[in-house]
Amino acid sequence: MKIIKTSIPDLLIVEPDVFKDQRGYFFESYNQERYFENDMKMIFVQDNESKSMKNVLRGLHFQKPPYAQGKLVRVIQGKVLDVAVDIRKGSPTYGKFHALELDALSKRMFYIPEGFAHGFLTLEDDTIFSYKCTNYYNKESEGSILWSDQTIGINWNINNPILSEKDKIAPLFKDFNSPFQY
């Protein structure tokens, strides 16, 4: 397993060891001992999965404390543009984002700790997206920021993604009062 640091501290890319042969492949999608050995000592309590058609954009979402969640995300089938935005007040990278493509072929994963808003755009039909969470979901703790906010400046390379009603009316970053401190 290889851990790659990103331009924003605490956001990590995980490249698992994938063993391929004529039968197919095998890899450990999660092994707590290996993560702990790499100073990734988070405990996951919930797994989530979504399936989406191409051009579905989900995000930018987060859970407010005390239900804040760290996430280890990956694509089981298909491909996404995955984005995390630093929403920790006082952080030197506050309001900055890191984007990367995740796909079923590479098996790469992305670790997004508490204090980040997260979203993804599906780039293929029937994309299956999976994520492990460090805390349980709590509806009253949901938060979001408008996916197309110009202050953040994410280039999703799409003008009219398929959005939920909630994501269409999410607040702008300038109107957002972050519950997270760096």
Strand order of the largest sheet: 1-2-11-7-13-5
* Mean of residue pLDDT values: 97
Task: Calculate Rg over CA atoms.
Answer: 16 Å
Q: Could you tell me the CATH topology label.
A: Jelly Rolls
CATH homology-level superfamily: Jelly Rolls
What is the number of E strands? 15
* Series of secondary-structure elements, N-terminal to C-terminal: EEEEHEEEEEEEEEEHE
Determine the structural class based on helices, strands and strand pairing.
mainly beta
Describe this structure in words.
With 182 residues, the protein is mainly beta. The protein is built from two helices and 15 strands. A hairpin with a 6-residue loop joins β1 and β2. The radius of gyration is 16 Å and the shape is globular. The protein starts with a strand and ends with a strand. The mean pLDDT is 97.
Defining key terms:
182 residues; mainly beta; five-stranded antiparallel sheet
Secondary structure blueprint with pairings:
Elements: E1 2-5, E2 12-15, E3 19-21, E4 24-26, H1 32-37, E5 46-52, E6 57-63, E7 71-77, E8 79-86, E9 88-89, E10 97-103, E11 109-112, E12 116-122, E13 127-133, E14 142-144, H2 165-168, E15 180-181
Parallel strand pairs: 9-15
Antiparallel strand pairs: 1-2, 2-11, 3-4, 5-13, 6-12, 6-14, 7-11, 7-13, 8-10, 8-12
